[in-house]
Amino acid sequence: MRDRLVLMAGVVLAFLLITGSMERAWTEVYIAGGAGMTFPLDLRHVRGTGANHGVSFGSLDLANTEVFGGKVGYFFEDKGWEWVGVEVEGFVSHPRVTHQTSSGPATESVIAGTGEHVRIVTTALNVLARYPHGRLQPYAGIGLAMVSATVSGPSLAVSDSSPGLNLLAGAKFFLTERVAVFCEGRYTYASFQFEDAGLAGAGVKGVYQAPGVVAGMAWHFK
After folding, report:
1. Beta strand pairing call for 43-50 and 202-221
2. Using an 8 Å Cβ cutoff, are 214 and 36 in contact?
3. Which domain does 210 fall in, by range?
4. Which of 41, 82, 167, 222 has a C-alpha 20 to 30 A away from that of 57?
5. What is the DSSP string of 67-113?
6. Tens digit of pLDDT for each residue in 170-186?
């Protein structure tokens, strides 16, 4: 519930800022919400930091999980620029660490193998390109993301935030002039470093990659 409230507040704030600062004659503003599945790859190149420096733990398996969120943005309406847009989005997922055995040569990662809960919050500023004609409008985008991860279990609670890359591609189908449904494929990349991962002074770091699929509805204000 807390994640939903934070995302809703962020989307509403972004919507108010965009609609308050941009002239309607120059932009096509929209707000959207959606849900789907994310299929995170293994947390790769996991290595120790601090007291664990020099220890390699291989990869940690992350479970597939639901993802939900929203976005607000606009497309330019100037002649010749209707295909360009900008959006702010936020999505939340919970890809639990699956039960497994670490391959560290000297010790085992405290995070690995005990089924810890993971919360990933991704916010991104995307630049979009679309086909702006007709009911069916394909689009693609690339953006800068801020990805926050929190890992919690019986004996630890660690978190980290990292800049990352956000990629997306999909299509909208307009049911009416203002209401559309959409489906998109997504990919997020970031690198995390968790300090004091169950043991003071001992941490781990690794690369996070998460493809996914999201579907939802969008409302356009023209």
Report:
1. antiparallel
2. yes
3. 2-221
4. 167
5. EEEEEEEEEE-STT-TTEEEEEEEEEE--PBPS-----SS---SSTT
6. 999 999 999 999 999 99
